[in-house]
Design brief:
It contains 5 helices and 5 strands, in the order E-E-E-H-H-E-H-H-E-H. It folds into 2 domains: about 50 residues; about 80 residues, Orthogonal Bundle (Arc Repressor Mutant, subunit A). It has a 3-stranded antiparallel sheet, covered by helices on one side. A two-stranded parallel ribbon has the order 4-5. Helices cover about 35% and strands about 15% of the residues. A hairpin with a 2-residue loop joins strand 2 and strand 3. It is of the alpha+beta class and about 160 residues long.
Amino acid sequence: METFACYDTELGLLEVGCDRGAVTSLHWVDKIAHPHAPTALSDEAARQVRQYLAGERREFDLPLAPSGTDFQRAVWDALCAIPYGETATYGEIARALGRPGAARAVGAAAGRNPVWLVIPCHRCVGTNGALTGYAGGLWRKEKLLALEKSLLTER
């Protein structure tokens, strides 16, 4: 049975969904929509997100079980291949998947990513680097990209 827990972060209220020992969803919400039932795994996911936001973590070490179609999963895998602090366009991902005309489909699949931040859909941008589409709000996407770029230039 999927359980949900909410945590305060500097980018807002984070909701973590877990089921059978894996994170099934992770995203920011405006209000608590499910009963708050924290687990050791949801606590760990929130801890890792806070570390990321504090600049102390670049990668996540969490068991994931996002639900999606084969195409969505392929897009999510491609998103995970975008290095920390870098971006790729929806078109570049479509070409990498062998579907050069599918930039919009890639955008739709990225938008259905249930595990924000861990599957870094914020690193996917429009043509010429334009910030487009982020279910968590473009202001969060901008902050996440700025955080990653600033930490890369510090080191």
